[in-house]
């Protein structure tokens, strides 16, 4: 009953937060587009027509290719629609990987302390000494290129941040009376972590995970731009940018502009909703 009541208050606050609702609407639209891409899109994302390469879109009277075509004559709108599948998948899976790894090490570090805490935190400090994108490139240099490797690399780069957040929350919860009571009656550490620690650190994990999805999409686009993420001819927004920015000087500005706008909108949507969710879940920020 308490969980339902808390969800009610969180949703009630979110509905009043206009920016959070705008972010939620953007996310829902992106998910719908990704799920029904094969129904919404007008063409095959891999179909090439060199005679139609770099054709402008609706602003130039082109009714067949609404946003124009790319350097291989592929319909840009179709590739952007299918690109939402790739980018959202990378964002969600990368964050799930980061949350799982970071939460496990964060809880173990905060709960047991001692040498476990020292080892985990020193490893986190080492990872924090490198910029996240550089760390992802280093990891991909070990794993190799490709979309699956990019998900793993991005997920690992988010693990240290999540580990620190979860560790600090675990230390607070560990010192509460109900945990001490559970220890005094002989409950084992594993059950205490599952029943008491995890459920009380879940809120910051959800908030940080939501905020991280937008950043993960941006990092995936950066890796794709560098040629380390999605490989041709996969329709991924960052990879589309990497192969099209050179055509801007030739006048084909739309080839790079519209994938960039989609990256901007998706990151904005997740950040707006994540900020609102953080305020809604934390009672001290509601009013």
Question: How would you describe what is shown here?
Answer:
The chain is mainly alpha-helical and 287 residues long. The protein has one domain (2-285): Orthogonal Bundle (MetI-like fold), CATH 1.10.3720.10. Helix content is 72%, strand content 0%. The chain has helices spanning 2-16, 18-35, 37-40, 76-112, 114-128, 132-143, 147-174, 177-184, 189-225, 237-242, 254-281.
Question: How do you describe this structure in short?
Answer:
With 287 residues, this protein is mostly helical. The chain has helices at 2-16, 18-35, 37-40, 76-112, 114-128, 132-143, 147-174, 177-184, 189-225, 237-242, 254-281.
CATH architecture classification name: Orthogonal Bundle
CATH superfamily assignment?
Answer: MetI-like
Q: Helix fraction?
A: over 70%
Number of domains: 1
- Named CATH topology: MetI-like fold
SSE sequence, one letter per element: HHHHHHHHHHH
Main sheet overview: none
Tell me what portion of residues adopts beta-strand conformation. Answer: under 5%
CATH class annotation:
Mainly Alpha
